[in-house]
């Protein structure tokens, strides 16, 4: 090898760079001479080495200028390194705004002191001297903090606050609605634990987002169990693969589902209500189960139930909350036949809860019952876009624990309406309702009646 290296170095000087006028024959002659020299060196090396020959040595690579006919050398492009995903790339911002106009066209718009006026616990625009109102202005900030942890934050910019100036009601206050994070206990994300302020899994309609619901408001009977639908606590949700597949298909079809919740849920909450300080050591224990069945022809029937037990202390007119803790317990059933193109929806609940007793002039525990039945149709395409007409009847007898002194509600209502969606970001709902209601004020007697026309424009973003 020591003899081979100097020889290679020496022979390298024999090959001179070809001149401009150098021919192909001259280049070939030089290559042949170089091959002969290399062959002689290999023979000399084999004669001087007594040991078995080593692996053949590859001939040195000598750079030779390409001929004009040689093809260009193709250089492989290098792939740039993958960009690492930042934490903020997993965060999403969305929301919706609801602008509403409600008008009493006939009935008890006003009444003397102590007599019920036509009012609703859900719509502050139903009343005297009312106009346009923002029903909701929601922003949702959500995202994944890792493969097993996600968060959800939703404030509302359309909250009203009373008694700001000689009892005047003020609009447009910011209030926290949801603030929670999910911890997924399995790789498929079917089993999750939710911590923070979130919806209480009672009632199908209560769980459904207001941006998806067809009627303008939730029913009194179901919503009275958990007014504003939320509280602070811990809840576990589980969704089997079969159920998830059906819900995903319904979502892709444009159906209005009840949200990102499990087929089974169980949890514990403070029980005093949204954005209210806990008043006792008891907790609200709640459970929900719902299951969709494919019944043929692409149709889906979903049935289920929910229940809770709680101890609550309502706000009293003398100030603060009641010193007495009242039983607050319910059980409810629901059924939904998703429209294809005709559908039906119904819920009913029974139980007991706090209610103001006019005879005793005090809050006591009394029975409650009520629910609703709804029919709707779905037209996927038309000259004005998709639309959904609906008809709903609702009734309720029982206390409204979210109001001062937990007044009794006596509600009977028929509502007819239609929702248009001319473009995906815009929804317009027109509704008529024949209402018979007891006002949510224990100081006013009787029930008010009237006809109400309402419109709502919803912007999704």
Structure description:
- The protein is 11% helix and 45% strand.
- It is built from five helices and 16 strands.
- The chain has a 16-stranded antiparallel β-barrel.
- A hairpin with a 4-residue loop joins strand 2 and strand 3 (149-161).
- Helix 1 packs antiparallel against helix 2 (24-48).
- The termini are far apart.
What is the topological layout?
Blueprint: H1 4-11, H2 24-48, E1 91-107, E2 132-144, E3 149-161, E4 170-184, E5 191-199, H3 204-207, H4 220-223, E6 230-238, H5 241-252, E7 264-269, E8 284-296, E9 299-312, E10 326-337, E11 342-357, E12 362-377, E13 387-399, E14 408-423, E15 426-437, E16 448-460
Antiparallel strand pairs: 1-2, 1-16, 2-3, 3-4, 4-5, 5-6, 6-7, 7-8, 8-9, 9-10, 10-11, 11-12, 12-13, 13-14, 14-15, 15-16
**Bulk shape:** elongated
Total number of helical segments?
A: 5
The SSE string, one letter per element, is HHEEEEEHHEHEEEEEEEEEE
Residues in helix, %: 10-25%
Question: Uncertain runs with pLDDT below 50, 5 residues or more?
Answer: 1-21, 53-60
Give, in spatial order, the strands making up the sheet with the most strands. 1-2-3-4-5-6-7-8-9-10-11-12-13-14-15-16
**Biggest pleated-sheet summary:** 16 strands, antiparallel, barrel
Structural class: mainly beta
């Amino acid at each position: 090898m020591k003899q081979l290296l100097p020889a290679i170095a020496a022979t390298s000087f024999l090959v001179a760079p070809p001149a401009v006028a150098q021919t192909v024959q001259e280049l070939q002659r030089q290559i042949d001479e170089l091959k002969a020299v290399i062959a002689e060196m290999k023979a000399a090396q084999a004669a001087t080495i007594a040991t078995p020959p080593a692996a053949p040595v590859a001939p040195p690579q000598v750079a030779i200028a390409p001929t004009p006919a040689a093809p260009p050398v193709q250089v492989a492009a290098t792939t740039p390194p993958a960009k690492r995903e930042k934490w903020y790339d997993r965060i999403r911002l969305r929301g919706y705004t609801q602008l509403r106009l409600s008008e009493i066209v006939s009935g008890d718009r006003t009444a003397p002191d102590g007599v019920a006026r036509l009012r609703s616990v859900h719509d502050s625009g139903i009343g005297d001297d009312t106009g346009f109102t923002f029903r909701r202005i929601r922003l949702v900030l959500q995202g994944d903090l890792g493969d097993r942890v996600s968060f959800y934050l939703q404030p509302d910019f359309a909250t009203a606050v009373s008694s700001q100036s000689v009892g005047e009601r003020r609009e447009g206050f910011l209030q926290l609605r949801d603030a929670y994070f999910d911890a997924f206990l399995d790789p498929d994300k079917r089993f999750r634990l939710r911590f923070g302020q979130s919806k209480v899994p009672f009632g199908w309609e209560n769980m459904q987002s207001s941006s998806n619901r067809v009627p303008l408001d939730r029913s009194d009977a179901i919503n009275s169990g958990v007014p504003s639908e939320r509280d602070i606590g811990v809840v576990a949700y589980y969704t089997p693969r079969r159920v998830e597949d059906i819900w995903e298909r319904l979502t892709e079809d444009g159906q209005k589902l009840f949200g990102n919740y499990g087929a089974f849920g169980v949890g514990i909450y403070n029980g005093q209500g949204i954005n209210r300080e806990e008043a006792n050591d008891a907790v609200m224990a709640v459970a929900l189960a719902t299951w969709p069945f494919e019944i043929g022809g692409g149709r889906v029937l979903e049935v289920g139930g929910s229940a809770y037990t709680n101890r609550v202390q309502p706000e009293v007119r003398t100030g603060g909350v009641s010193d007495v803790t009242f039983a607050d317990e319910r059980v409810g059933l629901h059924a939904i036949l998703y429209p294809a193109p005709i559908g039906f929806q119904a819920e009913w609940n029974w139980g007991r809860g706090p209610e103001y007793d006019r005879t005793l002039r005090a809050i006591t525990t009394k029975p409650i019952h009520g629910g609703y039945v709804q029919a709707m149709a779905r037209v996927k395409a038309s000259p004005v876009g998709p639309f959904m007409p609906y008809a709903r009847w609702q009734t309720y007898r029982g206390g409204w624990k979210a109001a001062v002194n937990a007044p009794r509600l006596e509600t009977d209502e028929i509502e007819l309406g239609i929702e248009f969606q001319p473009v995906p970001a815009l929804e317009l709902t027109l509704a008529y309702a024949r209402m018979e209601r007891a006002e949510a004020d224990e100081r006013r007697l009787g029930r008010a009646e009237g006809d109400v026309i309402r419109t709502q424009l919803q912007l999704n973003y």
